[in-house]
Design a protein that fits this description.
By secondary structure, this protein is α/β, with parallel strands linked by helices. Helix content is about 40%, strand content about 15%. It is built from twelve helices and ten strands. An eight-stranded parallel barrel has the order 1-2-3-4-7-8-9-10, surrounded by five helices. Strands 5-6 form a two-stranded antiparallel ribbon. Helix 1 runs parallel beside helix 12, helix 3 crosses helix 5 and helix 6 packs across helix 7. The radius of gyration is 19 Å and the shape is globular. About 45% of the residues are buried.
Protein backbone atom coordinates (compact mmCIF):
# COMPACT_ATOMS: atom_id res chain seq x y z
CA UNK A 1 0.00 0.00 0.00
CA UNK A 2 1.13 3.52 -0.84
CA UNK A 3 0.16 7.02 0.25
CA UNK A 4 -1.42 9.65 -2.01
CA UNK A 5 -0.30 13.28 -1.64
CA UNK A 6 -3.33 15.41 -2.55
CA UNK A 7 -2.02 18.70 -3.92
CA UNK A 8 -5.58 20.01 -4.28
CA UNK A 9 -6.09 20.14 -0.52
CA UNK A 10 -2.78 20.61 1.29
CA UNK A 11 -0.02 23.19 1.40
CA UNK A 12 3.49 22.34 0.21
CA UNK A 13 4.73 22.07 3.79
CA UNK A 14 1.87 19.71 4.72
CA UNK A 15 2.55 17.53 1.68
CA UNK A 16 6.22 17.20 2.58
CA UNK A 17 5.27 16.35 6.16
CA UNK A 18 2.80 13.73 4.96
CA UNK A 19 5.45 12.11 2.77
CA UNK A 20 7.81 11.83 5.72
CA UNK A 21 5.09 10.46 8.01
CA UNK A 22 3.98 7.97 5.34
CA UNK A 23 7.50 6.62 4.99
CA UNK A 24 7.83 6.25 8.76
CA UNK A 25 4.44 4.52 8.94
CA UNK A 26 5.39 1.78 6.49
CA UNK A 27 3.73 2.87 3.25
CA UNK A 28 5.79 1.60 0.33
CA UNK A 29 5.33 4.32 -2.31
CA UNK A 30 3.83 7.73 -3.02
CA UNK A 31 1.34 9.11 -5.51
CA UNK A 32 1.16 12.87 -6.01
CA UNK A 33 -1.58 14.65 -7.97
CA UNK A 34 -0.69 17.13 -10.72
CA UNK A 35 -3.22 19.97 -10.91
CA UNK A 36 -3.36 23.63 -11.85
CA UNK A 37 -6.69 24.11 -10.07
CA UNK A 38 -8.31 22.25 -7.19
CA UNK A 39 -11.67 20.69 -7.93
CA UNK A 40 -13.41 23.37 -5.85
CA UNK A 41 -12.48 26.43 -3.83
CA UNK A 42 -13.09 24.65 -0.53
CA UNK A 43 -10.10 22.38 -1.18
CA UNK A 44 -8.10 25.54 -1.58
CA UNK A 45 -4.64 24.49 -2.80
CA UNK A 46 -2.77 23.57 -5.98
CA UNK A 47 1.03 23.84 -5.70
CA UNK A 48 3.29 23.01 -8.65
CA UNK A 49 3.84 19.27 -8.55
CA UNK A 50 7.45 19.35 -9.74
CA UNK A 51 8.47 21.57 -6.83
CA UNK A 52 6.70 19.19 -4.43
CA UNK A 53 8.53 16.19 -5.88
CA UNK A 54 11.87 17.93 -5.43
CA UNK A 55 11.11 18.72 -1.80
CA UNK A 56 9.71 15.26 -1.02
CA UNK A 57 12.77 13.60 -2.53
CA UNK A 58 14.84 15.18 0.22
CA UNK A 59 12.80 13.90 3.19
CA UNK A 60 12.11 10.27 2.25
CA UNK A 61 13.23 7.61 -0.20
CA UNK A 62 9.86 6.19 -1.24
CA UNK A 63 9.18 5.78 -4.97
CA UNK A 64 7.09 8.67 -6.32
CA UNK A 65 4.55 8.55 -9.16
CA UNK A 66 2.56 11.47 -10.55
CA UNK A 67 -1.15 10.63 -10.51
CA UNK A 68 -1.48 11.88 -13.05
CA UNK A 69 0.31 14.31 -15.34
CA UNK A 70 -1.27 15.41 -18.61
CA UNK A 71 1.71 15.98 -20.97
CA UNK A 72 -0.31 17.24 -23.91
CA UNK A 73 -1.96 20.67 -23.61
CA UNK A 74 -0.94 22.89 -20.69
CA UNK A 75 2.72 21.82 -20.80
CA UNK A 76 4.56 20.56 -23.89
CA UNK A 77 5.81 16.97 -23.59
CA UNK A 78 9.41 18.11 -24.12
CA UNK A 79 9.17 20.12 -20.88
CA UNK A 80 7.49 17.28 -19.00
CA UNK A 81 10.31 15.03 -20.21
CA UNK A 82 12.86 17.35 -18.61
CA UNK A 83 10.86 17.58 -15.36
CA UNK A 84 10.48 13.80 -15.17
CA UNK A 85 14.16 13.18 -15.93
CA UNK A 86 15.24 15.59 -13.19
CA UNK A 87 12.81 13.98 -10.75
CA UNK A 88 14.23 10.56 -11.58
CA UNK A 89 17.75 11.82 -10.89
CA UNK A 90 16.70 13.45 -7.59
CA UNK A 91 15.07 10.20 -6.43
CA UNK A 92 17.91 7.94 -7.60
CA UNK A 93 15.64 6.30 -10.15
CA UNK A 94 12.61 5.96 -7.87
CA UNK A 95 10.38 8.27 -9.93
CA UNK A 96 7.64 7.02 -12.25
CA UNK A 97 5.69 9.26 -14.60
CA UNK A 98 1.98 8.65 -14.33
CA UNK A 99 0.17 10.17 -17.30
CA UNK A 100 -3.37 10.56 -18.55
CA UNK A 101 -5.44 12.38 -21.13
CA UNK A 102 -6.27 15.12 -18.64
CA UNK A 103 -9.17 17.30 -17.55
CA UNK A 104 -10.34 20.61 -18.94
CA UNK A 105 -10.16 21.91 -15.35
CA UNK A 106 -6.38 22.14 -15.59
CA UNK A 107 -5.67 22.19 -19.30
CA UNK A 108 -7.90 25.03 -20.58
CA UNK A 109 -5.97 27.83 -18.87
CA UNK A 110 -3.97 28.96 -21.92
CA UNK A 111 -7.08 29.22 -24.07
CA UNK A 112 -6.45 26.06 -26.09
CA UNK A 113 -9.44 24.15 -27.39
CA UNK A 114 -10.26 21.05 -25.32
CA UNK A 115 -10.05 18.11 -27.75
CA UNK A 116 -12.41 15.16 -27.90
CA UNK A 117 -11.41 12.09 -25.91
CA UNK A 118 -10.16 10.15 -28.96
CA UNK A 119 -7.92 13.04 -30.01
CA UNK A 120 -6.58 13.40 -26.48
CA UNK A 121 -5.51 9.76 -26.53
CA UNK A 122 -3.72 10.30 -29.85
CA UNK A 123 -1.96 13.33 -28.39
CA UNK A 124 -0.95 11.29 -25.34
CA UNK A 125 0.54 8.56 -27.51
CA UNK A 126 2.65 11.06 -29.45
CA UNK A 127 3.69 12.83 -26.25
CA UNK A 128 4.98 9.59 -24.71
CA UNK A 129 6.95 8.86 -27.88
CA UNK A 130 8.64 12.28 -27.66
CA UNK A 131 9.47 11.92 -23.96
CA UNK A 132 11.04 8.52 -24.42
CA UNK A 133 13.16 9.83 -27.28
CA UNK A 134 14.41 12.69 -25.12
CA UNK A 135 15.25 10.38 -22.22
CA UNK A 136 17.89 8.74 -24.42
CA UNK A 137 19.97 11.91 -24.07
CA UNK A 138 20.23 12.22 -27.83
CA UNK A 139 19.32 15.26 -29.92
CA UNK A 140 15.66 15.01 -30.87
CA UNK A 141 13.89 16.53 -33.84
CA UNK A 142 10.22 15.73 -34.14
CA UNK A 143 7.63 16.99 -36.60
CA UNK A 144 4.43 15.22 -35.72
CA UNK A 145 0.71 15.67 -35.98
CA UNK A 146 0.43 17.52 -32.67
CA UNK A 147 3.95 18.49 -31.57
CA UNK A 148 7.18 19.91 -32.92
CA UNK A 149 10.55 19.46 -31.24
CA UNK A 150 13.51 21.31 -32.73
CA UNK A 151 17.01 20.09 -31.89
CA UNK A 152 16.29 19.38 -28.23
CA UNK A 153 18.54 17.42 -25.93
CA UNK A 154 18.25 16.61 -22.23
CA UNK A 155 21.57 16.75 -20.40
CA UNK A 156 20.36 15.70 -16.93
CA UNK A 157 18.95 12.21 -17.35
CA UNK A 158 18.76 9.14 -15.10
CA UNK A 159 20.66 5.94 -15.83
CA UNK A 160 17.33 4.27 -16.60
CA UNK A 161 14.42 6.17 -18.16
CA UNK A 162 11.36 6.62 -15.95
CA UNK A 163 8.59 4.10 -16.31
CA UNK A 164 5.43 5.58 -17.80
CA UNK A 165 2.22 4.43 -16.10
CA UNK A 166 -0.96 5.30 -18.00
CA UNK A 167 -4.26 6.18 -16.35
CA UNK A 168 -7.22 4.72 -18.22
CA UNK A 169 -10.91 4.02 -17.72
CA UNK A 170 -12.68 3.18 -21.00
CA UNK A 171 -11.78 0.18 -23.19
CA UNK A 172 -9.88 2.24 -25.80
CA UNK A 173 -7.81 3.96 -23.14
CA UNK A 174 -7.06 0.68 -21.36
CA UNK A 175 -5.90 -0.93 -24.60
CA UNK A 176 -3.68 2.08 -25.30
CA UNK A 177 -2.25 1.89 -21.78
CA UNK A 178 -1.43 -1.77 -22.34
CA UNK A 179 0.20 -1.00 -25.68
CA UNK A 180 2.38 1.99 -24.76
CA UNK A 181 2.48 2.05 -20.96
CA UNK A 182 4.78 0.40 -18.45
CA UNK A 183 1.87 0.10 -16.03
CA UNK A 184 -1.79 0.94 -15.42
CA UNK A 185 -3.43 3.47 -13.07
CA UNK A 186 -7.09 3.60 -12.04
CA UNK A 187 -9.26 4.81 -9.19
CA UNK A 188 -11.90 2.07 -9.20
CA UNK A 189 -11.67 -1.51 -7.88
CA UNK A 190 -12.58 -2.78 -11.33
CA UNK A 191 -11.42 -6.36 -11.87
CA UNK A 192 -12.54 -6.30 -15.51
CA UNK A 193 -10.31 -3.30 -16.22
CA UNK A 194 -7.30 -4.99 -14.60
CA UNK A 195 -7.98 -8.18 -16.53
CA UNK A 196 -8.37 -6.32 -19.83
CA UNK A 197 -5.13 -4.43 -19.24
CA UNK A 198 -3.13 -7.56 -18.42
CA UNK A 199 -4.55 -9.52 -21.33
CA UNK A 200 -3.89 -6.67 -23.77
CA UNK A 201 -0.39 -6.20 -22.36
CA UNK A 202 0.31 -9.89 -22.74
CA UNK A 203 1.24 -10.30 -19.09
CA UNK A 204 -1.70 -12.45 -18.00
CA UNK A 205 -1.37 -12.85 -14.26
CA UNK A 206 2.39 -12.41 -14.20
CA UNK A 207 2.18 -8.78 -13.05
CA UNK A 208 4.80 -7.89 -15.64
CA UNK A 209 3.36 -4.38 -15.81
CA UNK A 210 2.18 -3.09 -12.43
CA UNK A 211 -1.40 -2.05 -11.80
CA UNK A 212 -1.82 0.84 -9.39
CA UNK A 213 -4.90 2.41 -7.87
CA UNK A 214 -5.87 5.39 -5.73
CA UNK A 215 -8.61 6.02 -3.20
CA UNK A 216 -9.39 8.34 -0.29
CA UNK A 217 -10.21 8.11 3.38
CA UNK A 218 -11.37 10.64 5.93
CA UNK A 219 -10.28 9.98 9.51
CA UNK A 220 -12.36 11.91 12.04
CA UNK A 221 -13.38 11.43 15.68
CA UNK A 222 -16.79 10.18 14.50
CA UNK A 223 -18.38 8.86 11.31
CA UNK A 224 -20.75 11.82 11.17
CA UNK A 225 -17.92 14.34 11.44
CA UNK A 226 -16.02 12.45 8.76
CA UNK A 227 -19.02 12.65 6.46
CA UNK A 228 -19.29 16.40 7.05
CA UNK A 229 -15.61 16.89 6.20
CA UNK A 230 -15.70 14.63 3.13
CA UNK A 231 -18.87 16.22 1.78
CA UNK A 232 -17.56 19.74 2.31
CA UNK A 233 -14.22 19.09 0.61
CA UNK A 234 -14.87 16.38 -2.00
CA UNK A 235 -18.52 16.39 -3.18
CA UNK A 236 -17.14 16.13 -6.73
CA UNK A 237 -16.33 12.49 -5.93
CA UNK A 238 -20.03 11.81 -6.42
CA UNK A 239 -20.28 13.26 -9.91
CA UNK A 240 -21.08 10.68 -12.60
CA UNK A 241 -19.81 10.03 -16.10
CA UNK A 242 -17.30 12.25 -17.88
CA UNK A 243 -18.02 15.49 -16.02
CA UNK A 244 -14.59 15.38 -14.36
CA UNK A 245 -12.96 15.52 -17.80
CA UNK A 246 -15.03 18.30 -19.36
CA UNK A 247 -16.02 20.85 -16.68
CA UNK A 248 -13.52 23.72 -17.03
CA UNK A 249 -13.45 25.58 -13.67
CA UNK A 250 -13.77 24.97 -9.93
CA UNK A 251 -16.94 27.08 -10.06
CA UNK A 252 -18.49 24.64 -12.53
CA UNK A 253 -17.60 21.72 -10.26
CA UNK A 254 -19.18 23.52 -7.32
CA UNK A 255 -22.36 24.07 -9.32
CA UNK A 256 -22.54 20.45 -10.46
CA UNK A 257 -21.74 19.20 -6.96
CA UNK A 258 -24.90 20.77 -5.57
CA UNK A 259 -26.66 17.79 -7.15
CA UNK A 260 -24.57 15.37 -5.08
CA UNK A 261 -26.19 14.28 -1.83
CA UNK A 262 -24.18 13.15 1.22
CA UNK A 263 -25.26 9.53 0.74
CA UNK A 264 -23.20 9.44 -2.47
CA UNK A 265 -19.99 9.89 -0.47
CA UNK A 266 -18.54 6.38 -0.45
CA UNK A 267 -15.06 6.92 1.01
CA UNK A 268 -14.40 5.34 4.43
CA UNK A 269 -14.61 7.83 7.27
CA UNK A 270 -14.35 7.96 11.02
CA UNK A 271 -11.93 6.27 13.45
CA UNK A 272 -12.80 2.60 12.87
CA UNK A 273 -10.11 0.90 10.72
CA UNK A 274 -12.47 -1.79 9.41
CA UNK A 275 -14.01 0.24 6.52
CA UNK A 276 -10.53 1.26 5.37
CA UNK A 277 -9.36 -2.36 5.45
CA UNK A 278 -12.48 -3.51 3.62
CA UNK A 279 -11.91 -0.97 0.85
CA UNK A 280 -8.26 -1.98 0.48
CA UNK A 281 -9.36 -5.60 0.23
CA UNK A 282 -11.72 -4.72 -2.65
CA UNK A 283 -8.79 -3.34 -4.65
CA UNK A 284 -6.61 -6.34 -3.82
CA UNK A 285 -9.35 -8.73 -4.90
CA UNK A 286 -9.77 -6.76 -8.13
CA UNK A 287 -6.14 -7.58 -8.89
CA UNK A 288 -4.34 -4.31 -8.26
CA UNK A 289 -0.73 -4.55 -7.16
CA UNK A 290 -0.60 -1.30 -5.17
CA UNK A 291 -3.32 0.88 -3.63
CA UNK A 292 -2.51 4.48 -2.65
CA UNK A 293 -4.74 6.17 -0.09
CA UNK A 294 -5.17 9.94 0.23
CA UNK A 295 -6.13 11.67 3.47
CA UNK A 296 -9.17 13.93 3.32
CA UNK A 297 -9.47 16.70 5.88
CA UNK A 298 -7.25 18.03 8.64
CA UNK A 299 -6.69 14.77 10.54
CA UNK A 300 -4.09 13.27 8.22
CA UNK A 301 -1.71 12.42 11.05
CA UNK A 302 -4.38 10.31 12.71
CA UNK A 303 -5.18 8.57 9.41
CA UNK A 304 -1.52 7.75 8.82
CA UNK A 305 -1.17 6.49 12.41
CA UNK A 306 -4.27 4.31 12.01
CA UNK A 307 -2.88 2.77 8.83
CA UNK A 308 0.48 2.18 10.51
CA UNK A 309 -1.00 0.34 13.51
CA UNK A 310 -4.25 -1.17 12.23
CA UNK A 311 -4.43 -1.42 8.44
CA UNK A 312 -0.97 -2.01 6.98
CA UNK A 313 0.00 -4.87 9.34
CA UNK A 314 -3.29 -6.67 8.74
CA UNK A 315 -3.43 -5.98 5.02
CA UNK A 316 0.09 -7.24 4.45
CA UNK A 317 -0.37 -10.28 6.67
CA UNK A 318 0.08 -13.62 4.84
CA UNK A 319 -3.60 -14.56 5.24
CA UNK A 320 -4.60 -11.31 3.49
CA UNK A 321 -2.54 -12.07 0.40
Amino acid sequence: MGYFLSTEEFTPAELVEQARLAAEAGFTSLFVSDHYHPWNDEQGQSPFVWSIIGAVSQVCDLPITTAVTCPTVRIHPAIIAQAAATSAVLTNGRFHLGVGSGEALNEHILGDAWPAAEVRLQMLEEAIEIMRELWTGKVVNHDGRFYTVDHARLYTIPDTPPDVYVSAFGPKAIDLAADIGDGFISTKPDADAVRRFREAAGTGNTHGKPTLAATKGCWAPSVDEGLDIAYRLWPNEGLPGELAQVLPTPEHFEQASTLVTPDRMKMPRGPDPEPYLELATQYAEAGFDVLHVAAVGPHYKQLIDMYATEVLPRFHAPEAQ
